[in-house]
Amino acid sequence: MNARAHARQYNPLTWLGIAAAAFLLVAPYVLPLIVDEFWVTVLTEMFIWGLFAASVNLLLGYTGLLSFGQAVYFGMGAYGVALGLDTLGLSFWSAFVFGIAIAFVTAAVTGFFAVRLTWHYFAIITVVFSLIFYFLAVGWKDLTGGDDGLPFALAPVLMWGEWELSLSDLTFQYYFMLVIVGGCFYLLYRVLESPLGRAIVAIRENDSRASLIGLSPYWIRYTSFVLAGVFAGVAGVLFALFSRYASAHYMFWTVSGEGVIWTIVGGVGTLFGPVLGAMFLIILREELSLYWEHYLLLVGVIVILAVTFAPGGIMGLLYKWIVPAASGPKVGREAEASEQPRKSLE
Questions:
Q1: CA-based angle 27:279:103, to the nearest 5?
Q2: pLDDT at 322 over 60
Q3: 259: nearest Cα among 67, 65, 124, 107
Q4: Could you give the CA distance from residue 269 to residue 291 in angstroms, rounded to a whole number?
Q5: Of 68, 122, 218, 262, whose CB is crowded by the most CB atoms within 10 A?
Q6: Whole-angstrom distance between the N-terminal and C-terminal Cα of the chain?
C-alpha cells in the first residue's frame, strides 16, 4: 500500500464522510425524530445550493477565476425546465435535459468572450453578463413572467400505467435531489482527477509555464467555464423543480456572490468545502431568522470572522482539528484547505 492510500485509509475525515453519507441516506426518516420535518426540505435545498457553490468553486478554487456570473446559468437552467414543462409541454426528462442544454449553450457563448480576460477584468465581465441576462429576463415578460416569475406544474418523473412517481412526494423528492447532486459531484471528482483536472490546476498556478508544455490556457479555462456553467445549470433545474417556480431574481449577480461566500467559508479549492459552507450559512440563516428580523447583519459578521480567523474555511478547520499529526502528511486537494489560501485573483 503506497503512502497516499495509507493516509486515506487512516484519515479520520474519511470515516466522518462515510458517517455523513450514511446519515444522508436515512435523513428523511431520522430527522423528523430529532427536529421538525421542515428540516428535510431545508436539507434538500442545501443539496441544490451546495452544487451551485461547487460550480463557483470549480472556477475560483481550481481555475483561479472569480466569477459573479454563475447565477446566469443557474437561472437559465431554471427557466429552461420551466418553459419546457409549462410552454412547450415536454415530458419531465425532456424538460430536464432542455434546461441543462439552455445553460450549456449560454455558458458556451458567454465563455467564448469571458475567459479571454483574467483577474478583476474577468470578475467584471461576469457581472456585466449577469446584468444583461437579468434585465432581459425581467423585460421579456411574455416569456419569463418578468418580476412575477414563471410558476409551473410538475410532470411525473416516472409513469407505468396508473402508477407514477412525482416530486410532489417529498421523500422521493429528497432522494431524487440527492442522487442527481451526488452524481454531479462524482462527475466533478472524476474531472478533477483526470488529466484535464490537472491541466486546469496547472493553468491556475502558472499559465505561462503551462503553455510551454503545450497546454492552451484559453481553451482549458474555456472548458472549465463551460463545465461550471453546466453544473450551475443542473442546480438551477433542480431548484426550479424544488420550488415549482423560475424567477429572474435568481439570475442577478448577488446570487453568484452568495455562492462565492459559501465557497470561501467552506474551503476554496476543496471538493466538499462549498457544500459545507452552504449548509452552515443556510442553517445559520434559518435559525437566526427566528429571533431577529435583521438576522443578515449577524450572518455578515459571522462570515467576516470566519474569513479572518479561518482563511482555509471549514475544511481547513477540520484538517487542523480532526486529522492527527500521527496520520502522516495530508494528501489530495482537500489538504490544500489547511494551508494558506491560494491567491485566486492573481
A1: 100
A2: yes
A3: 67
A4: 34
A5: 262
A6: 38
Q: Which three cell numbers stand for residue 297?
A: 447583519
d(Cα 85, Cα 87) in Å, to the nearest integer? Answer: 6
What are 245's strand-pairing partners?
A: 151
Q: Residues 281-307: what's their mean pLDDT?
A: 83
CA distance 312 to 339: 7
What are 138-169's pLDDT values in tens digits? 999 888 888 888 999 888 898 887 788 889 88
Reported pTM: 0.88
Please name the amino acid found at residue 91: S
Is a pLDDT exceeding 60 seen at residue 339? Answer: no
pLDDT at 337: 44
- Three-state SS annotation for the chain: CCHHHHHHHCCHHHHHHHHHHHHHHHHHHHHHHHCCCHHHHHHHHHHHHHHHHHHHHHHHHHHCCCCCCHHHHHHHHHHHHHHHHHCCCCCHHHHHHHHHHHHHHHHHHHHHHHCCCCHHHHHHHHHHHHHHHHHHHHHCHHHHCHHHCEECCCCCCEEECCEEECCCCHHHHHHHHHHHHHHHHHHHHHHHHCHHHHHHHHHHHCHHHHHHCCCCHHHHHHHHHHHHHHHHHHHHHHHHHHHCEECHHHHCHHHHHHHHHHHHHHCCCCCCHHHHHHHHHHHHHHHHCCCCCCHHHHHHHHHHHHHHHCCCHHHHHHHHHCCCHHHCCCCCHHHHHHCCCCCCCC
Average of per-residue pLDDT values in the chain: 87
For the chain, the domains span 34-338
One of 1.10.3470, 2.60.40, 3.40.50, 1.20.1250 is the CATH number of 34-338, namely 1.10.3470
Q: What is the reported pLDDT for 134? A: 94
246 neighbors 152 (Cβ within 8 angstroms): yes
